[in-house]
Amino acid sequence: MEQNIHISDYDYDLPEERIAKFPLERRDMSKLLVYDQGDISQRRFCDIGSVLPEGALLVFNNTKVVRARIIMHKPSGARVEVFCLEPCDPADYERAFAVRGECTWHCIVGNSKKWKEGALEIPFEYEGNACRLQAWRVRNDGREQVVRFEWTAPMTFGQLLEHLGRIPIPPYLNRDSQEIDNTRYQTVYSKFEGSVAAPTAGLHFSEELIEALKTKGFGFEEVTLHVGAGTFLPVKSDDVMQHTMHTEHFEITLPTVEHLLAKRGSVVAVGTTTVRTLESLGALGYRVLREGDPCPERAIGQWELYDIPDEYDGCRLLEALAGYMRRTGEGKIKTATQIMIMPGYRFRVVDHIVTNFHQPKSTLLLLVSAFVGEDWRRMYDYALQNGFRFLSYGDSSLLLGNE
Fold first, then answer.
1. What is the C-alpha separation between 395 and 46, in angstroms, rounded?
2. How much is the average pLDDT of 209-234?
3. Would 201 be classed as within a structural domain?
4. CA-CA distances (angstroms) from residue 147 to 70, 118, 120, 237?
5. Would you say residue 343 lies in a domain?
6. Sign, CA torsion 306/308/311/316
7. What CATH code is carried by the domain that includes residue 327?
8. 1 belongs to a structural domain
9. 8 Å CB contact between 130 and 123
């Protein structure tokens, strides 16, 4: 990996008016910047099929954004916002959303100074009955708090969030969530609850566009990575090597790994979360070759991918992982990744990327630079000069080629 990378070198001027505060009326009518090994052009997103490599495999992140923001009150009337980040007990996402009556989560608490002790509460009605949700702070972990929830309604925690929670739109939109966000800050193919931020590159795909691409012979696969609030954390140290990358949970199936192998050279990752998932598979494959086991209980480390020798290409690593899953009958692997992709990184699984335009001095911008090099500046200058909209509800780019 490259040494002495300074985040100050990945800064640019983003005027407030260029940040898209709301989505366009039609998902697939956003602009698409096409970067083709140095050449830059633009299309409408609905025309992406005309610039994708023929027969390419598009890989989506099918995570679903949960209504993770809960507005609660103390008996005194003080308003406190509890933002659910990650399940603590039960720790598994599927079980955490299916549990009834009580659970514990890692949370960010807004206006926490008003919550010194005691319970927060929301009275509500469910199926004609008076119910209540209560919350207690179990532990203070600095930026995060561990919060225990108890509720009287005969519903799962997932149903409770749907009933009482709000969609956690990005903080840089500087507005409260609105009704439109409930559907538009969600991909049309979202399935599995767990994210507190949308995989925004996928927001441009409409059901009609996906069907049109299938008709044209493009392949589709899905992975699941639950996006955490850490995706919005700034890089605080100018030396990016000092930045601690956030951890996110993902799962992958054997058929998906086999499809990736069959489509080597034409894998299109839709979104940076999909990039992180697919590239993390290389670490699992290398563990199989080195240790005989992918050790999914151990999160993939921030720099682990950089330690893989160059002679281990993506095909060899995916074959090792697929072989292990076939031998053991493992149809699915669940694990977590802390991978940080920055200049000097070698992409082994992803050949092309669909991604939005990211914040200055962000780890996501480092990822883009790792793929296109210093051309990221040309891309962003072009986008700023040609009326592109930025960030989560903004326009998109297609990065072709991984020479």
1. 12
2. 90
3. yes
4. 12, 12, 10, 30
5. yes
6. negative
7. 3.40.1780.10
8. no
9. yes
Whether residue 222 is found in the same domain as residue 363:
yes
- CA–CA separation, 300 and 298 (whole Å): 6
Q: Are 138 and 117 in contact (CB under 8 A)?
A: no
pLDDT tens track for 16-67: 999 999 999 999 999 999 999 899 999 999 999 999 999 999 999 999 999 9
pLDDT tens digits along 256-307: 999 999 999 999 999 999 999 999 999 999 999 999 999 999 999 999 999 9
Residue 388 vs residues 116, 271, 357, 358: alpha-carbon distances, Å? 45, 18, 9, 12
Q: Could you tell me the residue range of the domain that residue 131 belongs to?
A: 68-165
Of the pLDDT bands very low, low, confident and very high (cuts 50, 70, 90), residue 402 is low
